[in-house]
């Protein structure tokens, strides 16, 4: 499912109007009707409505909503924030129509008008927020910010039109303050700000309404941002053939674990195997071999000589490189320790291995001191940083990344030609070609140690099975989040641990692919 930035939505509207001849006023009518359709599902005829409109087209949608609710016999009051002489073109047509109806219209120009607004809101069952949509252009200040405070403080139930007012449609950031909606009805395509946090939380329940934008217009735009859906995932997992053997499902080599951090290796290996992988080889310091063997008997281990307790050194590089010759993927990093030994190994691997690679955790920590190594890579690489790791890789603060996660992931992917999986509550996958895939499942129960190792294992397993790395990353992130949700549904979010996701993984995959 495509998702857009404000500017892209403006272009879509403009093309629809100018090239396809559908007047903006019709789109506005459809938008307003779309909201009314939702409202009448939820609220009976005796409900009272306060509709708060800005002077742009978002306000115009509000005037349409007012007219239709009024016609249906609902009690409606309209408030316009700012001078009604500044109402924009299409919105003005709809404003003039409601002036002809017996609808109470009040201007909110300054603080002295706020008392009327407060009374209006308090006497209403529902408030419709049609103050700002995709046209919000700066921080909210002055009277508009007071209006938003009143909406949040006094409303019983808020429907936001397109985007909660005060939320930036591009990145979901709060522009000083924003409406906390119960339901948001967005039009044509979801906006990035409806999906990314904190915007997603401010939307409440998000509903997408068709407003009659021609299919061709959306196709023409060559939109690069997507929400990951089950359809994308379902069609990408290959059917297991009857006449097959373990060699048919790939060989994965994994470098993970060190003294004190064998758990990361175990979780990564188990997850890869639970994702349908044929054969897994773990390169591990010899003193840790027994722990791995007893915990993941299905893994083949390659015990390596150690430089100090539980840490392997560059002296093993020949064996590691040799081992990649018949492997389908090499994964490096989980629980390896942020050591100079790992750094030496990673440098050689990036420069010499010509198989797809997954770099996670400590692999990324050592890479962050030498990102330029990526320009020497011989193969497709997937990196899976969380916000802290991305901060180290880019030199940006976590706050800067959170403000614009799509841009940050996209820029990194394009600059270094790597598939970038930026993990957070909304994981973003960016490809070197500028495509972006946003994952919307998963839950805070997954904010627990080891869940990242599980994701790395799943990606490893799918790449080994021959799924191209970008697709493997997309599928894995979706299945990982969905499995987390299924665990949380039964166990709740508090007691969820990474191992639970591994146990449930086979069932999720079975249900997603339908066999
Ligand atoms: N033809 C179209 O473009 C359509 C637009 N639609 C609606 O129109 C919205 C976009 O309309 P617009 O582009 O007119 O923009 P908005 O109505 O979202 O906002 C623009 C208005 O808000 C003011 N404004 C912006 N930032 C402000 C700030 N920080 N403080 C105070 N005032 C501020 C502007 O001066 C302008 O009056 C969409 O979100 C959607 O709801 C729909 O009606 C469908 C068709
Ligand atoms: N609030 C949340 N909502 C959805 N997914 C989450 C949330 N918190 C964490 N996750 C997911 O859990 C995983 C955590 O990974 P990471 O931080 O690398 O953990 P670790 O390094 O301990 O294994 C990521 O895939 C992330 O997207
Ligand atoms: K709005």
Number of domains: 2
Coarse shape? elongated
The kinds of small molecule bound in this structure are: ligand NAX, adenosine-5'-diphosphate, potassium ion
Instruction: Tell me the distance between the termini.
Output: 24 Å
In angstroms, what is the radius of gyration?
A: 27 Å
The percentage of residues in β strands lies in 15-25%
SS field, number of helical segments:
21
Q: How are strands sequenced across the largest beta sheet?
A: 10-21-20-19-18-17-16-11-12-13
How many strand elements?
Answer: 21
The helix fraction, in percent, is 40-55%
CATH superfamily of the largest domain: Ribokinase
The CATH architecture name of the largest domain reads 3-Layer(aba) Sandwich
Uncertain residue segments: none
Biggest sheet overview: 10 strands, mixed
> What is the CATH C level class of the largest domain, in words?
Alpha Beta
CATH topology of the largest domain: UDP-N-acetylmuramoyl-L-alanine:D-glutamate ligase
Supply the helix-strand structural class: alpha/beta
> Would you tell me the overall average pLDDT?
96
Characteristics:
alpha/beta; Rossmann fold; UDP-N-acetylmuramoyl-L-alanine:D-glutamate ligase; ten-stranded mixed sheet; 21 helices; 17% strand; multifunctional enzyme; ATP-binding; ATP binding; nucleotide-binding; lyase
Please give a structural write-up:
With 515 residues, this protein is an alpha/beta fold. It has 2 domains: 221 residues, YjeF N-terminal domain (Rossmann fold); 268 residues, Ribokinase (UDP-N-acetylmuramoyl-L-alanine:D-glutamate ligase), CATH 3.40.1190.20. The chain is 44% helix and 17% strand. Strands 10-21-20-19-18-17-16-11-12-13 form a 10-stranded mixed sheet, sandwiched between helices. The chain has a 7-stranded parallel sheet with strand order 4-3-2-5-6-7-9, with helices on both faces. Strand 5, helix 6 and strand 6 form a beta-alpha-beta unit. Helix 3 packs parallel to helix 4. The model has no long low-confidence stretch (mean pLDDT 96). The structure holds ligand NAX, adenosine-5'-diphosphate and potassium ion. The site of potassium ion has 12 residues, from strand 5 and strand 6. Its cofactor is Mg(2+); K(+). This is Bifunctional NAD(P)H-hydrate repair enzyme. It catalyses: (6R)-NADPHX = (6S)-NADPHX; (6R)-NADHX = (6S)-NADHX; (6S)-NADHX + ADP = AMP + phosphate + NADH + H(+); (6S)-NADPHX + ADP = AMP + phosphate + NADPH + H(+).
């Amino acid at each position: 499912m495509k998702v857009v930035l404000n500017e892209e939505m403006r272009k879509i509207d403009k093309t629809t109007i100018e090239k396809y001849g559908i007047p903006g006023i019709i789109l506005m009518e459809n938008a307003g009707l779309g909201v009314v359709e939702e409202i009448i599902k939820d609220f009976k005829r005796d409900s009272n409505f306060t509709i708060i409109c800005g002077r742009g087209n978002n306000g115009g949608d509000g005037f349409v909503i007012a007219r239709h609710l009024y016609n249906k016999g609902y009690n409606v009051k309209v408030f316009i924030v700012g001078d009604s002489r500044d109402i924009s073109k299409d919105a003005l047509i709809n404003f003039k129509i409601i002036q002809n109806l017996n609808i109470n219209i009040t201007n909110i120009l300054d603080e002295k008008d706020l008392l009327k607004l407060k009374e209006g809101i308090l006497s209403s069952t529902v408030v419709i927020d049609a103050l700002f949509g995709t046209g919000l252009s700066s921080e909210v200040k002055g009277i508009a910010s007071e209006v938003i405070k009143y909406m949040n403080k006094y409303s019983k139930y808020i429907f936001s039109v397109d985007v909660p007012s005060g939320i930036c449609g591009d990145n979901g950031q709060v522009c000083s303050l924003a409406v906390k909606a119960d339901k948001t009805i967005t039009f044509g395509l979801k906006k990035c700000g409806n999906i990314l946090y904190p915007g997603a939380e401010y939307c409440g329940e998000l509903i997408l309404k068709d407003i009659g934008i021609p299919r061709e217009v959306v196709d023409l735009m060559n939109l690069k941002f997507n929400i990951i859906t089950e359809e994308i995932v379902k069609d990408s997992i290959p059917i297991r053939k009857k006449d097959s053997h373990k060699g048919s499902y790939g060989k994965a080599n994994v470098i993970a674990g060190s003294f004190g951090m064998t758990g990361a290796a175990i979780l990564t290996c188990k997850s890869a195997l639970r994702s349908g992988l044929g054969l897994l080889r773990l390169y591990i310091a010899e003193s840790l071999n027994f722990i791995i063997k007893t915990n993941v008997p299905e893994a083949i281990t390659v015990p390596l000589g150690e430089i100090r307790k539980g840490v392997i050194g560059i002296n093993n590089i020949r064996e590691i490189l040799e081992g990649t010759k018949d492997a389908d993927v090499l994964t490096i990093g989980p629980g390896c320790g942020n050591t100079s030994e790992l750094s030496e190994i990673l440098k050689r691997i990036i420069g010499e291995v010509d198989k797809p690679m997954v770099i996670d955790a400590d692999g990324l920590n050592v890479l962050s001191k030498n990102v330029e190594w990526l320009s020497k890579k011989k193969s497709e690489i997937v990196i899976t940083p969380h916000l802290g790791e991305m901060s180290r890789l880019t030199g940006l603060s976590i706050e800067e990344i959170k403000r614009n996660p799509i841009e940050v992931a996209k820029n990194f992917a394009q600059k270094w030609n790597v598939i970038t999986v930026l993990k957070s509550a909304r994981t973003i996958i960016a490809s070197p070609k500028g495509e972006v895939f946003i994952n919307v499942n998963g839950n805070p129960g997954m904010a627990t140690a080891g869940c990242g190792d599980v994701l790395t294992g799943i990606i490893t397993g799918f790449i080994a099975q021959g799924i191209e790395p970008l697709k493997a990353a997309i599928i894995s992130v979706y299945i990982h989040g969905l499995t987390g949700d299924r665990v949380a549904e039964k166990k709740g979010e508090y007691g969820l641990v990474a191992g639970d996701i591994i146990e449930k993984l086979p069932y999720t995959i079975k249900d997603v692919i339908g066999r």
